[in-house]
């Protein structure tokens, strides 16, 4: 009997989509792979199994050598099937398995047969697979077929051969460079993709020869490049030639070509030319386009231009204001931030009202962009300041902005503190709550009515976790020291369930009680304030280390025994002293030299101690994307005859412990460098940064350049979350990193010392300028843009650049930049001003 039809349940639309790969395991899929060996092949079944294998490989599943070999040999038997769909799946799985050299031979004959097949789909795919799995020896055998394929009449086959050439150029450049004539012929093809791929390959073949690239661009700009994709490439190459030549002589044809590209029919070509020129008028036309992609591209380009040249974009403001109501929130956000950079004070309120209408619809990433734009505008127009809401990074950006406004705008202090108090009422981030409480404790008691903040602080003692409660107790004590002591509230904290909270309450009650009993003693009052608001005078890291080494004995711990020398922190980029802070906490103190800190670190490693004096250390360069399993950046240390790569690694997975961490560096594209030493990292626990080093020798005094490929290798051990102990046995693993490039700029050291100073109240800027010149004893140059010059004792030439600013209260700020051949002279000039 037939089953009655069941009406579709509308509620199923709200259910999560079912994945056909849900719950599949490697073992079961390998068992299913035996179907490849059946005498009667089921093409549909085989395709399904290959699909599962590809899914496992793309999900990061690793196959052992034996498993991969068995699968590979089984797959090769599928070449006997005539099913075209199955054949395409076979090509894909062979590429993913990446067979070894001895296994490639087995499948080469089948692929070469397909490469000469009458079926174009077989030919194109066979070429793609062969280019990925063969080595140089086999490449010479099929080179003749690849060269024929490049000029093949079928565009799919020709494109496959050209793309294969792009991949092979990385491993076998000498062979691919012999294809220049065929690639040159393919550039003239009428097929759009063939012309695009041919131009890309031809440029890569000649990229190291600047003259050859210039001739290529010159010939093609005069010719007839039909493909819009190829035209976009040609525009980029033309712009590159103009930049590298460094002169305008004889380049008028290049500029004529770029201008002509602005009048092309293809919109992508017009945008590419406008993006590199940039042509504000053309981009302005795109703002009113009916296509969202063109509007987004135009407003994003204008946003970048506005960062450096805001006045050049002001003519587009009317068009961008119409984009604020765009249905695409990414376009609306970029339009808002661009207008905030180019707008005036009168437009701030209007723009802010429009922002509130769509803030809930955009991601936190765009919210951060909006808040940073608002912060810049508020500093530009101090009478305008606002705050918004979002996730951790976004909320931290908000808090940093409010703190900066409180410090720079006195009138915003009380309203800003109230905003922060309201903020911590509903803040789920412990870090932000503790930092805000610390800031309120320092600034709140200095306001006209400090008592209005007490309720918010005590709410944290009642409602929050132990860390926030402890911070709230410290904040209450700070209010008690400068205002009326809140001993009743602090006594209630004595019964807290957390040791840290009880200990802090006991300590602060005793300190405040001693201050009350000797209220007539000014020195005691100053001691209490110094204890609560002052610093320890010693680094906290040093104190922690000394406490860990202290052994309980009859003699109590003496805080005077803690060393006061600041230990170097190579992984942390410290701010220059005197600059305006951008977040919570007091302004940073004067840092030690980064080169000195790195030099002490490197000299402590025996393998590097003989390299001599460190010349320069670069800023950290990220080798991984944000929010990946392992965070790695590299610092390039340059010596006269060596280069040391310092890889700063962080493990972001709590359940893993990494051991024997090293970076395998491939210097095949850096011929003048030879690896001489590797310093591994023995252990890398969760969220604990560590360093591993690789040293290279280069010709002494030479400006050697090159590109290095990096592979992070380590042993992974699982960590028990309950006990925190790692397993005894681990598994070897690896993680691909981005490439590192040594360039000429790494051998150039910028010898300049820059700092900012407050000169106090002055009648005018001219008085401040005269006072500084008298202090320095230097000769000011009247020529615009030429700074004061002088000669220091020892016949050392000194160049000084000064910048002054004055606010409404006539307080003058000065930025002082000093250049000299002798760094000690630059420091001495700053000491003169600072003294």
TrEMBL record:
Clathrin/coatomer adaptor adaptin-like N-terminal domain boundaries: 28-514
Subcellular location, record wording: Cytoplasm; Golgi apparatus membrane; Cytoplasmic vesicle, COPI-coated vesicle membrane
Disordered, as annotated region: 571-591
Gene3D superfamilies cross-referenced by the UniProt entry: Coatomer, gamma subunit, appendage domain, Leucine-rich Repeat Variant, TATA-Binding Protein
Keyword annotations: Cytoplasm, Cytoplasmic vesicle, ER-Golgi transport, Golgi apparatus, Membrane, Protein transport, Repeat, Transport
Gene Ontology CC terms: COPI vesicle coat; endoplasmic reticulum; endoplasmic reticulum-Golgi intermediate compartment; Golgi membrane
Function: The coatomer is a cytosolic protein complex that binds to dilysine motifs and reversibly associates with Golgi non-clathrin-coated vesicles, which further mediate biosynthetic protein transport from the ER, via the Golgi up to the trans Golgi network. Coatomer complex is required for budding from Golgi membranes, and is essential for the retrograde Golgi-to-ER transport of dilysine-tagged proteins.
Subunit structure: Oligomeric complex that consists of at least the alpha, beta, beta', gamma, delta, epsilon and zeta subunits.
Alphabetized PANTHER family for the sequence: COATOMER SUBUNIT GAMMA, COATOMER SUBUNIT GAMMA-2
Protein name, UniProt field: Coatomer subunit gamma
């Amino acid at each position: 009997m037939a089953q009655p039809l069941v009406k579709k349940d509308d509620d199923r639309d709200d259910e999560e989509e079912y994945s056909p790969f849900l719950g599949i395991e490697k073992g079961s899929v390998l068992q299913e792979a035996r179907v490849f060996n059946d005498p009667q092949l089921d093409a549909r079944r085989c395709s399904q199994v290959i699909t599962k294998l590809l899914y496992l490989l793309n999900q990061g599943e690793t196959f052992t050598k034996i498993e991969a070999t068995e699968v590979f040999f089984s797959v090769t038997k599928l070449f006997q099937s005539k099913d075209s769909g199955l054949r395409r799946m076979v090509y894909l799985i062979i590429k993913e398995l990446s067979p070894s050299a001895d296994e490639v031979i087995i499948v080469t004959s089948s692929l070469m047969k397909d490469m000469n097949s009458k079926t174009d789909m077989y030919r194109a795919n066979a070429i793609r697979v062969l280019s990925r799995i063969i080595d140089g020896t086999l490449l010479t055998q099929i080179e003749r077929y690849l060269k024929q394929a490049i000029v093949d009449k079928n565009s799919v086959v020709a494109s496959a051969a050209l793309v294969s050439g792009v991949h092979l150029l990385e491993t076998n450049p000498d062979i691919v460079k012999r294809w220049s004539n065929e690639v040159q012929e393919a550039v003239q093809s009428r097929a759009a993709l063939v012309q695009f791929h041919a131009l890309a390959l031809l440029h890569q073949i000649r990229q190291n020869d600047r003259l050859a690239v210039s001739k290529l661009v010159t010939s093609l700009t005069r010719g007839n490049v039909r493909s819009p994709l190829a035209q976009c490439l040609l525009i980029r190459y033309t712009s590159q030639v103009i930049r590298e030549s460094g002169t305008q002589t004889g380049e008028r044809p290049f500029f004529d070509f770029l201008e002509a590209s602005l009048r092309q029919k293809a919109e992508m070509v017009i945008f590419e030319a406008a993006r590199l020129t940039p042509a504000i008028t053309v981009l302005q036309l795109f703002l009113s386009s009916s296509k969202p992609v063109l509007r987004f591209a135009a407003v994003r380009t204008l946003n970048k231009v506005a960062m450096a040249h805001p006045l050049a974009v002001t003519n587009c403001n009317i068009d961008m204001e119409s984009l604020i109501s765009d249905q695409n929130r990414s376009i609306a956000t970029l339009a808002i931030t661009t207008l905030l950079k180019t707008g005036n004070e009168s437009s701030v309120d209007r723009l802010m009202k429009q922002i509130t209408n769509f803030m809930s619809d955009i991601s936190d990433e765009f919210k951060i962009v909006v808040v940073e734009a608002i912060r810049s505008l508020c500093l530009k127009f101090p009478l305008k300041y606002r705050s918004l809401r979002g996730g951790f990074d976004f909320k931290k950006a908000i808090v940093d902005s409010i703190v900066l406004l409180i410090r720079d705008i006195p009138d915003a202090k009380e309203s800003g503190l109230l905003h922060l108090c309201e903020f911590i009422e509903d803040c789920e981030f412990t870090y932000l709550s503790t930092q805000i409480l610390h800031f309120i404790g320092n600034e709140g008691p200095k306001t006209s009515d400090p008592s209005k903040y007490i309720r918010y602080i005590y709410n944290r003692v009642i409602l929050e976790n132990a860390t926030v409660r402890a911070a709230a107790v410290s904040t209450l004590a700070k209010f008690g020291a400068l205002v009326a002591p809140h001993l009743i509230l602090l006594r209630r904290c004595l019964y807290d369930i957390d040791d840290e909270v009880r200990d802090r309450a006991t300590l602060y009650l005793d300190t405040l009680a001693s201050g009350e009993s000797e209220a007539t003693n000014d020195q005691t009052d100053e001691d209490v304030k110094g204890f609560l608001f002052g610093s320890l005078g010693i680094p906290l890291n040093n104190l922690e280390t000394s406490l860990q080494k202290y052994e309980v004995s009859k003699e109590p711990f003496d805080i005077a025994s803690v060393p006061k020398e600041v230990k170097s922190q190579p992984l942390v980029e410290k701010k220059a002293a005197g600059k305006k802070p951008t977040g919570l906490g007091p302004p940073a103190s004067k840092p030690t030299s980064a080169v000195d800190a790195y030099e002490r670190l490197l000299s402590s490693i025996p393998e590097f101690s003989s390299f001599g004096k460190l010349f320069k250390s670069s800023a950290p360069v990220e080798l991984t994307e944000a929010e990946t399993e392992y965070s790695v950046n590299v610092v390039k240390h340059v010596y006269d005859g060596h280069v040391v790569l310092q890889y700063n690694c962080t493990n972001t997975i709590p359940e893993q412990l990494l051991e024997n961490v090293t970076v395998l560096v491939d210097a095949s594209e850096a011929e003048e460098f030879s690896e001489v030493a590797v310093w591994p990292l023995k252990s890398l626990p969760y969220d604990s940064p560590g360093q591993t080093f690789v040293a290279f020798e280069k010709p002494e005094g030479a400006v050697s350049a090159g590109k290095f490929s990096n592979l992070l290798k380590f042993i992974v051990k699982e960590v028990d979350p309950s006990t925190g102990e790692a397993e005894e046995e681990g598994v070897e693993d690896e993680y691909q990193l981005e490439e590192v490039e040594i360039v000429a700029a790494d051998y150039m050291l910028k010898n300049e010392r820059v700092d900012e100073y407050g000169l106090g109240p002055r009648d005018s800027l001219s008085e401040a300028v005269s006072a500084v010149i008298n202090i320095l004893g230097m000769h000011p140059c009247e020529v615009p843009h030429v700074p004061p010059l002088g000669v220091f004792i020892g016949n050392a030439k000194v160049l000084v650049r000064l910048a002054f600013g004055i606010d409404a209260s006539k307080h003058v700020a000065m930025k002082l930049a000093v250049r000299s051949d002798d760094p000690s002279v630059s420091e001495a000039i700053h000491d003169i001003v600072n003294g």
